[in-house]
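Question (not urgent): is this output format expected?
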Amino acid sequence: MKELELVEENIAQACRKAGRDRSEVKIVAVTKTHGPEVVEEAYAAGLDIIGENKVQEAMWKKPQCNSRLSWHLIGHLQTNKVRQALATFDYIHSVDSARLLDKLQAVAEMEGYRPRVLLEVNVAGEKSKSGMKIEDTPYIIEHAMINCPRIEIEGLMTMAPFAPEAEASRPYFRRLKELQIQMRKISGLYLPELSMGMSGDYQVAVEEGATFVRLGTVLFGARPKLTRTVQADDTGVGGGLDSYSGEGPTYKIID
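Got this back:
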């Protein structure tokens, strides 16, 4: 997988520039709209963390893939999909409210889960993106510590605004790192993980402290175009599209 070799070189270079160890950075292979055969290709190349945006798409794919993979939800999580998400994912990167924390806690207590989550922070304040406000982060962490004993807060996540130049993302990544340090002091939690950086800006994210980089197109190319779409049910059954290798279908879930 030549694409992965180049990504690895870039991450190693960014780590050297920042004085970091390469082992501190984990690649989340984002397989949104790609089929299980692409997940298996990623695993064969040495990638063992799979990132998905949709709960139901992962529910359909996961049983068809290697059981050693770790599945991470990187897209927005609705409260009505919490039960399915906890049954499917090892990590949730996108917790953005006390209400969602309370729902995760209730289901986790009922089903015996111990969710590992990251708090999504809308560092740029973009109205089009989910994530909590920076100033709300201390309250959300305090709420979790008091009311959600089954939930493990592992760190923070953000998405930088789209920009043609990767360097434009640096202030947002740097601010999330600063927030991590502040929240450690306030809460006493270690908060080891920072999920930030995607295909266009992951090197800058690594330089600024990312421990998870979420990579899709730089590894797998452009996502497949929809040829047909049908509403799927809660089990992921119904509808679909062709995956880029032509072997699909990969389900496209319409919320």
